[in-house]
Amino acid sequence: MxxxxxxxxxxxxxxxxALQFVAAGLPILRGAVPVIGLGMAVLVALTFMRLGSxxxxxxxxxxxxxxxxxxxxxxxxxxxxxxxxxxxxxLTGAPRIQHQSSE
Length: 103
What we know:
The protein folds into two domains: about 1-50; about 55-80. It has four helices and no strands. It has helices at about 5-25, 30-45, 60-80, 90.
């Protein structure tokens, strides 16, 4: 890889990072932030990891890594998505204390 191409990709990544900061600050463009991040990841994978020109099992292992990362994030987020607020009295069987209004 030539040094000028590495510098060009680095500058494009910096521009995309600046675009991400701008998009995160504007409510109408907040949906574009993950798309920009995905574009940055693809750019890194194709240039620095050289997945575009690799042969054999390298692209398959890279895709498998992305697949298992999605599984890991998905299963890890299930805990917070399915957690319900259960009070202490519901777990111990203790009666709830009702506060009386002072009228």
